[in-house]
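Quick start: read one record
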Amino acid sequence: MGASAPKDLVPVTVIAGYLGAGKTTLINELLSHDHGRRLAVLVNDFGAVNIDAALIAGHDGQTISLKNGCVCCSIADELGDALDRVLALDPAADQIVIEASGVADPANVAAYGQGWPGCRLDAVVVLADAETVQARSRDQFVGELVVRQLRRADIVMATKCDLVTEAGLAAVMDWLTETAAGAPILTRRAGQLEPELLLETAQPTARPGRQRSHAGNGPGEPAFDSAVVEVDGTLDRDRVEAALQDWPDSVLRVKGILRFNGAAGGLHIVQRVGRRWSIEPAPNGFTPDHTGKLVVIGLPGTLYHRDLTASLNRQAQ
């Protein structure tokens, strides 16, 4: 659902999923990847995070500082205490990533991201082991939890896809689509990372139009498409909200800066992740390089740039 979020808050991404889904592997890749974000990653167990010693700049027992500006922090006993610790970092983190326990309900963790002072929730990403998720969902002890985790997701990522047959993967994808209550379903193979989908990295600096990503979502296939949608003039906020709600589930992420008319006019930062969207006033004194542009990232072959542009330009004044 939409919201008018407070400004100057640190975005929080929750990485969830049942035991063995590949959360720690993904966290390792995020910490070492050149994504241009200063991440603060909160984990339950330092020992499970295999950080390359060459990347470590310092270690004080509760926090590991990396040479690329990222930090890895232990949740220890209290998630709130860990959030306060990383919010006090200098230099500040661009984004916080929380690795939820494999038996946690993502909604409980996301509540911290949404409500903790200084934070705002960016996305809940739930990983699902393509080999085992259906069997787990039928287990009398953990099945209900597995399904509940999937239904809390803004984005579901099927992992270990290279370990199942193409027919098996197709069946899992169909089941996830039916089970995950409208969340977009992505696939992930070994060594494949798309930080643009997991983190708030998109910036409206590219030229308007549609581009293919360089990353693969399968043999010879792109992981996602991106488009820069450009509008002229000011827009009606209610109509933009309607567009954000009406754009299809194949739209994975949206980020940009628009100018609204009326009493609540001025520059606003517009974002959407899965079905979650927000519109927040730009900070005082904010002077962006680009306005009237949205970066849209979606599943391959589903971004119809003309339709996206038309849906916003119809509302421009």
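The longest helix spans residues 166-179.
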